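User: what does the whole thing look like in 3D?
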Amino acid sequence: MKLRSKDILGLEYLEPDEMNLILDMASDMKKIVQSNMKRVNYLQGRSVMTLFYENSTRTRVSFELAAKYMGANAVNISVSSSSVAKGENLIDTGRTLDVMGTDIVVMRHCQPGAPHLLAKNIRASVINAGDGMHEHPTQALLDMYTIREAKGGFEGLKVAIIGDIMHSRVARSNIIGLGKMGAKVYIYAPATLMPIGIEKMGCHICSSLQEAVEGADVVMGLRIQKERLKKALIPSTEEYARFFGLDLRHLAGSKKDALVMHPGPVNRGVEMTSLLIDSDQSRITEQVTNGVAIRMALLYLLAGREEN
Amino acid sequence: MKLLIKNGTIITRDRTEVNRDILIEDNKISRIGEGISDAADQIIDAKGLAVLPGLVDAHCHLRDPGYEYKEDIKSGSISAAKGGFTSIACMPNTNPVIDNESIVRTIMEKASHEAVVNVYPIGAITKGLEGNELAEMGSMKAAGIVAVSDDGKPVMQASVMKKALIYAGGFGLTVISHCEDLNIAEGGSMNEGETSTRLGVHGIPSAAEDVMVSREIILSEYTGMPVHIAHVSTKGAVEMIRQAKKRGVLVTAETCPHYFTLTEKACEGYNTNAKMNPPLRTQEDVDAVIQGLKDGTIDIIATDHAPHHFDEKNVEFEMALNGIVGFETALPLALTYLVRPGILNLNQLIDKMSTKPSEILKIDKGDIRAEADADLVLVNLDEEYTIDTNDFLSKSKNSPFGGFKVTGRVKYTLVGGKIVYQDR
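Assistant: Here's the predicted 3D structure for the full assembly of 732 residues, as structure tokens:
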């Protein structure tokens, strides 16, 4: 089977069979990542462009390596947010890349829906590497891969996501993706960081951290950004850590083999204590490896869509 | 010059008369009756058509001067005429801002040459729409403004709004308030709710509108001066206005067709043609707006005609400019969504789209009677068609209503006895 759309704009637009295809493919790719011969020619002659309108090291490098491990020509473009302010037109930028022969554009943008606009206007495939507060599908897919690898599947799993749900595209993509695959997602956040109507996306809003982690198979923390203080959403990172930070003692209520996850980078001692981050149950570094595998799988599947 | 309209059904706020003839001499209605057989230079057969007082729009943006690539006085007035509007009041957020007498005179002068409908400028409340110092309302009134507003921007300082109400009231001018507490809106781009959460778009809470509506009601009540609430979109605002009217506060209110036809769901797929301010709300709000129209809480329907260039809408959702064009869809939408389902009868609709807006703007329009200006619109109330934005005569096509099936088409629009639009 093949992916139905030329683009990966969000998990909202992927069916479970497509997600399974991606996860299965990522298993094969992970072997390449972990081998001593990280070079295959699956994407030889193809061009992958990373177009980042927001700073990112992890995601960009992850995509770049994924492309290079498969022999693609990988080019990185960083566009400062100031040029967006100057009125540089996204469609024009995209069309320029298109006619230079780009096959896949990986884009991160501060504006929700920006990848949709790009995808509608160019021939190349577009992978959304994070659009504002909307979605971050490749992160959720790597999270799902990490979960499936450890748990064997998703049906009936309880996944607790704790942190700044309001501003988190990672949370939204995970809620959608895990929900479609049969897991139950429980979320918990400071009340000011819980967006209105999020439960309509198919998750359960918890009224305490205890409720969220109770019997959980996966406990996931989200990054809290300092700028939330300035907007009067939380009073201090100390208070956040006290009431919303995850500690080893919280794992007492969850399943014995619960996974500890975080999309990174972690603010140690804020979202999670170091003891938890570095515990045996933590999959935080594994997530990074899996990210490369997932991105290889996506690039491969998109590049192969038009071939027989 | 004599023009005779034969066998039409006259519908005004106060009466419905079938099979009537209207004789127009020069720019006025000279006689109304049955079987008028005077010789005329031109005869319009209005059999099967409704003859309404020309529609009056108390809220539009003509973008002239400053943004003529979106619209200008001529194109805007032609678009208005196609929609059945014969008098339109344009907001002052032009460049330069309509905040002094000479700009008002410039616009009046230009309109007298180029506009095919009556154009009435609305002056700014504050200089440069900056919310600080009062604009010269008295001088602007002497030049022809019909109201004052900082529309597009709220007057954030309550003290300034209080003084504006008192000062404008002294000149017999109504203040039209764009109700939005910017501190609560926090730069959002659509209604805060289930859809904004899913789309990851920064939301504008309905409370941003409600807080400001409550402030204006309190200030109007305190000062005893009238205030007109622009583009009401929330259930909370409707309810507060309803209660205020019961107490006798001098508050009037308008809504726009998009607030009784569409919800936030129209923004799905990052549809920038469904982006405006205030934003489309929820079904609950739509229902409240409809109820407000029905029980008289909401006095009038305005278009908030807000043309923007294609390139200004063909961008990321949060970067797209706010507003939609409205002249050419307002009447058919009102007929289809309010009159057809029986929420308003035709007389009530005429009140809300012609008579009452004339009263709020204090212009002598909105009725069909002998000696009145011959501003009329002839409508086939039964004609069904599908809205095609390419048919718009406005320079801009930014509308979420393309593809909507509506009933009711304007056949003729007359301003001062002159046919300014004819459907062919």
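In plain terms: The mean pLDDT of chain B is 98. The first helix of chain B runs from residue 73 to 82.
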